Each structure stands twice: as C-alpha cells, then as structure tokens.
Amino acid sequence: MAPPGIKYSQEPPDIENVLKLNPRVNTTASLRPTAITKADKLNWKRNADKGCSSCGTNKYENDFRDIKHTTLSERGALREATRCLKCADAPCQKSCPTQLDVKAFISSIATKNYYGAARQILSDNPHGLTCGMICPTSDLCVGGCNLHASEEGAINIGGLQQYAVETFMKMNIKQIVSKEIEASRNNAHKSPIALLGAGPASVSCATFLARLGYTDVTIYEKQDYIGGLSSSEIPQFRLPYNVIDFEVQLAKDIGVKIVTGKALHKDDLSLEKLKADGNKAVFIGIGMPEPKKVGIFKGLGIEHGFYTSKDYLPLVAKASKPGLYLLYLFHLQ
Q1: Dist CA 173 CA 118 (whole Å)
Q2: This protein's superkingdom (predicted)?
Q3: Which of 33, 97, 128, 247 might form a disulfide with 121, Cβ 3.0–4.6 angstroms?
Q4: Residue pLDDT, tens place only, 22-32
Q5: Does the pTM exceed 0.85?
Q6: Which one, of 301, 237, 200, 225, lies nearest residue 62 by Cα?
Q7: H or E segment at 117?
C-alpha cells in the first residue's frame, strides 16, 4: 500500500470486496422437465426459427416484402456510417462502376444529412436506389472495403446507399436543371433526341442529356410499362416497382418525355423514320432480346420443360408487382 497521503496511479484491488461480488453458486443441481423448457423457449424466443420443420410450405407465399439482410433502419444506418474509415485512396470508389464517392455520401449519412447523401449518389448515378438494392456489392465496393478483415466486417455500402435514397424519396423533392445550364442553352439544345427502350440505360442517358440542357428528349418503349429488365425480370421483393417509378419520375421532372407502346420495327419505329422526324441523335438501349444458350440446349423450349431467364423471370416479376400483374391479365384477355 502507498504511504499515508500518497496515492499511486492504480491501487491493488481489495480482494475481499471483489470476492463479495461473485455470483452465488447453488448447492444443488437444477431439475426442469424438457417439455416445460421447450414451451418456455417458444414463448420467449426472439429470433426467427430457421429450422425446416417450422418453415411451412406457404410461409413466403405472396410475401414480396424487402426482407434482405442489407436493408437498414435509421439506427442501423447511423451505426454503420460511423464505422467508415473515410480512406484517402478509397478502394470502394475504385471498385464502383459508376465511381460513386462512397466515403462522401457515408459521411453525410453519419451527420444525418440524408438529402446531401442522396444528392451525392443520384448526381453520379440516376439509378442510385436501384443499385443500392440489387447491385452485387460483395464483388464491387464492399469487396474492396479495407474493413473486410475486421471483426465487424466490411461496411454495408449497399444498405447505406438504399437508406439514403429511400429517405430522399419520401421527401418528395423534384429534380431540377441548374440555373447555369438553363442560362447557357442555345438552339442546339432544342434538337430532338430519341432513345429506344425505357430501361436503366436509356433513362440514365436521358437524365444526363436533360441535365446538360437538352429540352427535347423522348424515350420510346414497346411495353405498356417502364423500367425494362428492372421491371420485367426482377421480382418485387428485390426491386419494388415504386423504386423504378421514382427514378423515372426524376427524369420526367427535368423534361424527359416517355412514350409507351412504340417498338423498334420497320412498321412502327425505324431509324429512318426517326431521322425523318427530325431527330438529331438516336440512342438504342433495348437490351438483349434473347438469352444466351449453351449448345446442348439449343432447340429446347417451354414445351419441353426448358425455361430460360427470359421465359421464367418475367412470369415471376409480373406476378409479384401489382401494376404489372394487372397489365399481364389485361393482355391475356
């Protein structure tokens, strides 16, 4: 012990007082019937039972909610955002196909500036919410995160991106063209531009054209709905239709026009006709109409029990998305 009046930085513990805090040990063993223990477990269990015996055959029938593990609440988003290292030479940004400034929007989330985070995301990627929900981040930004080997693992970048843009979507703020762009417009910006296909490629292209000041941008879509593959081949629980509609509406906010029921065809829309109508440029974003097939499967079709992604996924997607399901039934009649 220290001399009277002198204290060391750390006094040795009073072992008798420490031992008084020890838990009391029972002198007899606990005896409880297994049946009662099982009943109590079911009564107090908080987490979902993943055992096959409790799944049931219809547990997820007609359940198309967003239940993926990366989806975050505000509390989860704030906790996750504070973990980011804000790397100077961030590998997550280098791994992103759209080169999003990941650390910048995560920093905004950490300070509850959700508008700033969404603005950062959507400025670089008009489909920021779609990518936040379905992008294979484990192969891209998350795969390059410097926290990958830490106990908590890599940052949930996709979940943070989804949370920021979903929060912005609820703000109902329209996209606008900057005043500087509006002031610098000339006759060239009035030139008609046509885009074929209302999928992600055309919507992104049209959005950037409108942001650059072009005022006569029109997207033509052969279906009665918009979104392309995002709508027709991705089920509701992975990508809700209101997300696609929100991103398309942002393009409409700055003057992009969309015409449905028009296809690239010699009897409908041809490149010659579009050129004759005065279009100065045409962007073709119709995607891949036919799936790739391995040679051994050529000649096989639905009648043989062989389904490709183009055969199967549209049935699942349309059945899971209320608006598309009604259109699908209408065409069947």
Answers
A1: 11
A2: Eukaryota
A3: 128
A4: 777 677 767 77
A5: no
A6: 237
A7: helix 114-124
Check: CB of residue 117 under 8 Å from CB of residue 109: yes
Q: Pick from 320, 298, 301: which is nearest to 310 by CA?
A: 301
Closest CA to 239 of 165, 290, 141, 157: 165
Query: 61 phi and psi, to 5 degrees?
Result: -65, 130
Query: Residues 247, 251, 257, CA angle at the centre, nearest 5°?
Result: 125
Name the pairing type of β-strands 257-260 and 281-284: unpaired
Q: What is the dihedral of CA 300, 301, 302, 303, to 10 degrees?
A: -70
Residue stretches of the chain with pLDDT short of 70: 1-13, 25, 29, 47-67, 323-333
How many C-alpha atoms does 263 have within 13 Å on its Cβ side? Answer: 10
